[in-house]
Amino acid sequence: MTFLEIANELVAGCREDRARQNLDRLYAADAVSVEAADMGGGRETVGLAGIHGKHDWWEGAFITHGLTVEGPFVHGDDRFAVIFGMDTEDRATGVRTQGREVAVYHVKNGKIVREEFFYSS
């Protein structure tokens, strides 16, 4: 896939609830995921299996009531950003929150090799 095809497919997958399937298609086996804050497991996750684990944790911890996806916003031929808007409910507490985050994706050799998340305060 080309850089733009990867960027557009990631966005389409998020909009169409195919984000999980896209991990295996779009990400390198040794991809790195970096969170803005430590949620208990460290800020950085290395490897596709670990990134799948992050998705498992998220799906187990939160109910997503709404999701907006803006982008991709390209930067050269190796990076793009996506803006996510989320309406989520914590399964443990029932607390519902709305937030936005920016994700920056780095692409190399036809795969996403790094993702970085920036949260609204």
From TrEMBL:
State the InterPro entries in the record.
NTF2-like_dom_sf (IPR032710), SnoaL_5 (IPR046860)
Q: Which residues form a coiled coil?
A: none
Name this protein carries in UniProt: Nuclear transport factor 2 family protein
Q: Which Gene3D superfamilies match?
A: 3.10.450.50
Q: Which Pfam families match?
A: SnoaL_5
Q: Where is the SnoaL-like domain?
A: 1-119
